[in-house]
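Reading a protein record of the kind used here takes only a little practice. The record below shows the convention in full.

——
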Amino acid sequence: MLVQTSASAPVVFLASGTRGDVQPCVAAACALQQRGFPVRIAAHLEHRALVEGAGVPFMALAENPSAWLAVHPTLFDGVISRTAVRETARYLRRVPRWTANLLDSAMAACAGARAVVGGLASLWAADVADACGIPALWQLLQPLTPTDSFAASVWPWRVPRTLSYVFVDAMLWLPLRGVVNHWRRSHGLRPRGIREGALVRVHARADAVMNAFSARLAPPPADWLPALHPLGTCFPQHTPALDAHLQRWIDGGDVIYIGAGAGSMAPITHALPWLHEALLRHGLRAVVNLPAVPPAFLDRMRIVRDVPHGALFPHMRCVIHHGGAGTTAEAARAGSPAVIMPVFADQHFWAERAQVAGVAVAPVHRAMGRSTWLARIDQALHDVNLRTGTQSCAMRMRDENGAQRVADRIIAALAA
């Protein structure tokens, strides 16, 4: 049963996850706030500066399971090994406690809220919304709606398309079912059944799902309802200028970007000798978003941290990255051809989509070696058709206005 709330009550974004999960929430929250709607973002403490720097009120969430997954090899990486099996078991043992703490901290953050907005890393937002008696909306950065056109975007294994959605729902719901239902009972709510999984809850109402990614990269399949069609990527509304010293360094010659994200730090670090060889071969330098590089490589590589992609990527001859939803979209919007090495969850999906959209070469997988890396980089630098396709896609993506369209959908949901 929904509770009547006043127009002054905030919309709360439950932004669990990595920076890539939080930044689109900040963009959508800013768009809502600019139109006179109170907002609040509940995120992990490491993202406080990002949220408050955009002028959005911040509330703290408890532990961040995504941070753990980003540094431990698990079966979510799509590779079977003793280490992956062991670390997956450790994750499954820990995730109930993490989830219980997240639910409690999210409940505190949603006190007096008008609506809750969740995402892939906060699918328990539906339970918080139930406890508060307010609607749950979904800002999704990757397609989670079942379709006959492609397998589930976050499932790294090759299985029949229909089965992939069943497996994802089981993976997201069954490890949490016990702790979530215990929490629901403690708040006077009916326990959720075994078939009331994460994806089932998200898609209970099509108009509550906001697919916040670009149709240029992931066109809507024919079997989706119109309400599910992509609204566009939620890019930051204001991109700060690059540091003056970094800008001068970039202006000194041709530069590429090398970076890693959730779960992909070790594989890309392993490829650094080949990437350095490519820099020497083509007379390039690289901006590197990694904790460290071998000292011998610093003649061609400059380490950076937390540099805004929107300001950096337009200066890059090509972008070498992990295939995160936000990084893939930023490279495409900048018109910079990409070389993608997917490792974790939806990174495989976006690497394939970027290739099909003509903004990236064929993905590089961790088993591939020196010759493949050198060939892919050479193609990204010199393939005329790839550069033309990337520039064409960039022109269209710059007009999508995803954050404003997500804000439109939230406002319409509040008025319903």
In short: The CA atoms of residues 59 and 109 lie 6 Å apart. The chain is about 45% helix and 10% strand. The mean pLDDT is 89.
